[in-house]
Amino acid sequence: MTPGSSVVDTAVAAAQAAARVALDRFHKPLVISRKGFRDIVTEADLAAQDAAVAVIQSRFPDAAILGEENLAPEAGADRVWVVDPIDGTTNYARGFPIFCVSIGVVQHGRPIAGVVYDPLRDHLFTAERDRGARLNGSPIHVSEVSALPDAILSLDWGQSLDKRRRSLTLLDRLATECRTVRAIGSAALGMCYLAAGWIDLFFNLALRPWDGAAGQVIIEEAGGRITTPLGEAWNYTQPSALASNGRLHFVFDPYRVNE
Prior knowledge:
Helix content: 25-40%
Radius of gyration: 17 Å
Number of helices: 6
CATH superfamily of the largest domain: Fructose-1,6-Bisphosphatase, subunit A, domain 1
CATH class of the largest domain: Alpha Beta
Structural class: alpha+beta
Number of strands: 14
Distance between the termini: 45 Å
Number of domains: 2
Shape: globular
Strand order of the largest sheet: 3-4-5-6-7-8-9
Largest sheet: 7 strands, mixed
């Protein structure tokens, strides 16, 4: 975190406020609703989003905010705050201890700041465009792994059968070549783990805007690379992304991966 940055400071405060709500309800009975196939929301997601939004609006009253839980900004906003109150809801709802809060700040369609907070481990990942990426205030960088047999690959699953089958086909090709594979269950944390050098490759074919708005700037500021599977420039609104330390980057066509 850069001292004196009101945007990053606000995102940190908002993420921590949401995390307090999530922690207070963790391992307690939850009201769980279904938003779609394999897609759930808990009362904690809604309360955590309210807490994050309250902090942002207290400092930026006119802020345009995109939140996972049915919160959309007005069209045409130059700056948008992108909030995922609990990334890893399935983990959270089952008591599996891997989840986080993710808040990205997007200016003219490009993420300029990102905060991802894992309250169980007190891991605070932050980044600001052209100012580097940090974990709890210390700079982080992607790994220097350059050979696939030494690499740790991470992926997350889409809810749809088609996206899952394509992910499995690609995984079948890579898993025999890399050192090992991890499915974390939180796209935002997967991106941050790559930025910190803990994993070397990450792909997801079913991202939502709130999954990657913060992670994109954190990866790029840590020296990593994130693109579409075809190697083109990636935007946080696109569902399919491949991220790497740069040394292991490759391209593939997700629509031909089953052929």
